[in-house]
From TrEMBL:
Protein name (record): Acyl-ACP thioesterase
All copies of domain Acyl-ACP thioesterase-like C-terminal, residue ranges: 153-205
Keyword Lipid biosynthesis among UniProt keywords: yes
Keywords, comma-separated and alphabetical: Fatty acid biosynthesis, Fatty acid metabolism, Hydrolase, Lipid biosynthesis, Lipid metabolism, Transit peptide
InterPro entries assigned: Acyl-ACP_TE_C, Acyl-ACP_thioesterase_NHD, FATA/B, HotDog_dom_sf
Keyword Ribosomal protein: no
CDD domains documented for this protein: 4HBT (cd00586)
Organism annotation: Faecalicatena contorta
UniProt similarity note: Belongs to the acyl-ACP thioesterase family.
All copies of domain Acyl-ACP thioesterase N-terminal hotdog, residue ranges: 7-123
One protein family per Pfam: Acyl-ACP_TE
Molecular function, one GO term: acyl carrier activity
Amino acid sequence: MYSFGSRVRYSEIGHHGTMTLPGLINYFQDCSTFQSEDIGLGVKELKKRKKAWILSYWQVIIERFPKMGEQVTVGTFATGFKGLYGDRNFFMNDEQGNRIACANSIWVFMDMEKGRPAKPGDEDILPYGMEPPLEMVYEGRKIRLPESSEDFPSFPVQKYHIDTNEHVNNCQYVQMALEVLPDEINVRQLRVEYKKSAVYGDIICPKVAFETERTVVELCDKNGNLYAVIEFK
């Protein structure tokens, strides 16, 4: 297990004085990145080898959003590797050790030069180790698409959306989906299924379905092909 302690910053909160959903996701992303850097499999090393672990699926469960100034501990660990994929859990606890949020994620190992999945070697897996998965309600990785949805105005991918892999960062899709929604929602579970990578200059065409138990945002290209599906509950 890898973990680090932090204090919730003003730049990570919203107008309610608590951490935003993108802020929480960024903590989880940073935690896995820190672990990779510390075991010698960081961004620079994998880029040199033209390889990368690309996020395929998130399920994030939120008990509450921490307040500004609150001390938190963020942790992550691998729970399994099979074929092209790796599974990873995350958690955020408060100062008393109470669970604030947890997540399950599925990653695919990519050959960035060929633009397709590649089987990771022992050198890509063993340094992470493996631990038993967290006790949480696990949902399937496939998000059921709504039968009907409403089109919303399109917008271009901006420079600030792009990460070191030269495509839209995982968290930015969630931020886009939140910005599309006309009203603020109280999120207790987030699921994201990533379909294909958007790059700078692409046009995002969002569709939204407001259902009784969930809100689903589909971020598509001009031809209706999905970049990502985001489900809020």
